[in-house]
Every structure is written in structure tokens, then in C-alpha cells.
Design a protein that fits this description.
By secondary structure, the chain is of the alpha/beta class. Helices cover 37% and strands 25% of the residues. It is globular, with a radius of gyration of 14 Å.
């Protein structure tokens, strides 16, 4: 299942994602992974979740992010949640490429029973129509 946390810059998307990740870390019987662009969340994310910095792996573009996420899933069978913040800063503000990646990941997430969350800096009305059903948090 793919969930989007959507809002304009400075609206509290990262805070909402932190709250969701920490809640998942308390309640999940599996592993939680948080993919963050830099080291800002080191003390905000529960130590029960694995925090990964995308800049360390030179993730540039949606194909690279797709490969990174699928690699994480391939390396650990008991991941229940993956949080990615902020997707547009990692890969660029390309709604078409983002939509294609989300569509591919949605099938995989369903098959693996994994919840994937992305923070997306935009107004909800800017999202492609078929992604609007994936909005979990609108700020």
C-alpha cells in the first residue's frame, strides 16, 4: 500500500511522517525503514526504526529510488513500513516519473504486504488524479 503525505513547503509533512514512523515502530512486529535525504532526523526517529540517508547512496532520480527501495525489500523479508522524506528533493519535481515509480511500487508493496509512505511537497490538487486516492495526510 502506498500512502502520500502531501502539503506545501513548511506545512508539517516531515513532522507527520515522524509521528507515523514512530507509531509504526511501536506497533509493528516487523522492521521499519526511514529513508531521509540527510541527517536531520537522527534524534527524532525511534531507535527501533532503521534510518537510512539517501545522500550517502547518491540516489538521483526515480529509477534509482525505485531500485534502492526494491533492494531494501529484497535484503530483508520482514519490513512492514518504509517512509521516504522528501521525495521531490531526492529525485526532482517530476510528477510523471513519480507516478510511474509509485505505480510499480504499489504492485510490489501489495505483494509483500508493505506500507510505503512518501512526503510530497505540493498542493493536493497538483497531484495526478489517480494518485489523490493515496493521500493519507493532507496539510
Amino acid at each position: 500500500m502506498i500512502q502520500l503525505i502531501v502539503g506545501h513547503k513548511g506545512s508539517g509533512k516531515t513532522k507527520a511522517m515522524i509521528d507515523l514512523a514512530n507509531k509504526a515502530a511501536k506497533e509493528s512486529k516487523g522492521n521499519i525503514v526511514v529513508v531521509e535525504k540527510d541527517v536531520e532526523l537522527t534524534y527524532d526517529i525511534s531507535s527501533q526504526a532503521r534510518l537510512v540517508y539517501s545522500d550517502e547512496y547518491s540516489i538521483a532520480g526515480y529509477d534509482a529510488l525505485f531500485g534502492f527501495i526494491t533492494g531494501i525489500l529484497a535484503g530483508n523479508y520482514d519490513i512492514t513500513h518504509i517512509f521516504v522524506d522528501p521525495v521531490f528533493k531526492m529525485c526532482g519535481r517530476d510528477f510523471e516519473a513519480f507516478t510511474q515509480m509509485v505505480n510499480k511500487l504499489d504492485n510490489l508493496a501489495s505483494a509483500k504486504d508493505v506500507s510505503l509512505y512518501f512526503t510530497v511537497s505540493c498542493e493536493p490538487g497538483e497531484l495526478p488524479y489517480h494518485l489523490r486516492d493515496m493521500v493519507a495526510v493532507e496539510l
